[in-house]
Amino acid sequence: METGHGWQRWVLGVALAMSGLAVAQAQTPQKITFCTNWFAQAEHGGFYQALATGLYKKAGLDVTIKMGGPQVNGLQLLAGGTCDFYMGYPVQDIVAASRGVPVVTVAAVFQKDPSVIIAHQGVKTLADLKGKPILVASYVNTTWWPWLENKYGFTQSQQRPYTFNVAQFLQDKNLSQQGYVGSEPLMIEKGGEKPVVFLLSDYGWPAYAETIDTTRSLIDKKPQVVAAFIKASAEGWKSYLADPAAGNKLIVEADPKQTPEQLAFGLSMMKKYQLVTGGEASKLGIGAMTDARWKEMFDFMVHNKMVPASFDYRKVYDLQFIKTIKVLPDAADLK
Question: 115-203 has which CATH code?
Answer without folding.
Answer: 3.40.190.10
